[in-house]
Structure formats: structure tokens, C-alpha cells
Design a protein that fits this description.
- By secondary structure, the chain is α/β, with parallel strands linked by helices.
- The protein has a single domain, classed as 3-Layer(aba) Sandwich (Rossmann fold), CATH 3.40.50.1240.
- The protein is built from 6 helices and 6 strands.
- The protein has a 6-stranded mixed beta sheet, sandwiched between helices.
- It is globular.
- The chain starts with a strand and ends with a helix.
């Protein structure tokens, strides 16, 4: 199970929403982001997870902390689950029609997954960084329910890499993503199926005014 969104935006509202915050920007949550995390915590706790893991970045840890508290579990931190390195994209508008992100995404969808602007990670770079972490965590905690709190693009690359018949070309196939969305995978090794993809709990929807 992982929390995230998928278009370069955070999986929870940051203190400066609407712009790219990559690995280079270790920004906190906004007030709404804290409320979103608090609203999601009891929902996730009701599923009785056994392990809570977070990216080391501040916005992910602040989202994961109320979840871990509600589950009465320690919070484990995985530094390699950090947000994508985005170089000069930091602080630029996150709207899909602006900046160099649309060109990058189109190249990935067209199969050029090794492409990245200078200073940024490509799709392949992200996959090569996070898949070994996924494999290690799912092997270490085999047969246990795991919650992983990380970043939108990380969640999307994992889904496109782990789900059968999915590639970067299926980026849009995963659908629109909102803040603090939840994806749930069931399986083992490299055999995974999705029980939910980028689903937002109603408690979070009410806060975020999502229709």
C-alpha cells in the first residue's frame, strides 16, 4: 500500500502548493496537508497494517507520523524513497501545460524513458532507485501488510513497473490523482495486482473539496 499522487505534485498539500517540489526542496506540509494526514490516519489504521514506512523527506514523514501513531506502530524511514530529483524544475508551476515537464512526460510515454533534463532523474533512474527498495521491503516484511508513504511520481513509477501489462506508456491510464491518494497492491515478488489505484478516502475528499 502506498500514498501518493502522480504528476510531480506531492501526495499531500505542501506549504507552497502548485509548484514542483523535488528532492531539492524538503518542504513541510501546509495546514491543509496536516489535516489531510490526520483525516487519513484512522482510515488506514482500520485496515490494521503491520508496518509503516516513509520516505525520509519532511512532507512524507509528517504525513506518515499520524498514521503510525493511529496504528500504534513505529515509523520506519527509507531515504531511497525520496522525491524525484528535478533540477531546475524546482519552484516552477506544476500545471501540466507549463514548463519542461510536458515534454519530459511525452518522451517517457513515447518510450524514451531514459530521457531527463540536466540535473533531473529519468523514469529509468527512478525505477532503478526504488524497485530494489520495494523488493527488499516486501521480502523483509513478507506476508505482512505494509503502508509506504512516499511521493507521487515514485508511486506512479512503481505502479507502472510492478503491474502486469503496464509501462510508461500507460501513465494516463492510471487516472487523475488528488492529494493523499491511496494505492493498494497485493502479491509477492514481481507478481502484483492493484486492489485500488490513487483512491482518496471520503474523509480526505471532504477536506480537499474533491467532487
Amino acid at each position: 500500500m502506498a500514498l501518493g499522487d502522480g504528476q510531480g505534485r506531492p501526495s499531500y498539500e505542501t506549504a507552497i502548493p502548485g509548484v514542483f517540489h523535488g528532492f531539492e526542496s524538503d518542504i513541510d506540509l501546509s495546514e491543509l496537508g496536516y489535516r489531510q494526514a490526520a483525516a487519513a490516519a484512522p482510515v488506514i489504521a482500520a485496515w490494521k497494517p503491520e508496518v509503516i514506512i516513509s520516505s525520509a523527506m519532511l512532507r512524507a514523514r509528517r504525513t506518515a507520523e499520524p498514521i503510525a501513531k493511529a496504528c500504534q506502530l513505529p515509523l520506519l524511514v527509507e531515504p531511497d524513497l525520496h522525491e524525484r530529483k528535478v533540477g531546475n524544475l524546482v519552484g516552477s508551476p506544476a500545471q501540466p501545460e507549463l514548463g519542461i515537464w510536458p515534454d519530459t512526460l511525452q518522451r517517457w510515454v513515447d518510450g524514451e524513458t531514459s530521457y531527463a533534463p540536466e540535473g533531473s532523474e529519468s523514469f529509468d533512474d527512478i525505477r532503478e532507485r526504488v524497485l530494489p527498495v520495494w523488493d527488499r521491503l516486501t521480502q523483509t516484511h513478507a506476508d505482512r501488510s505494509i503502508v509506504i508513504v512516499c511521493h507521487g511520481i515514485i508511486c506512479r513509477v512503481l505502479l507502472l513497473s510492478l503491474l502486469a501489462n503496464h509501462t510508461a506508456a500507460d501513465w494516463a491510464r492510471l487516472g487523475r490523482v488528488h492529494n493523499l491518494s491511496i494505492s493498494e497492491l497485493v502479491g509477492t515478488g514481481r507478481d502484483w495486482r492493484a486492489s485500488r489505484v490513487f483512491e482518496v478516502p471520503s474523509e480526505v475528499r471532504e477536506l480537499s473539496k474533491i467532487g
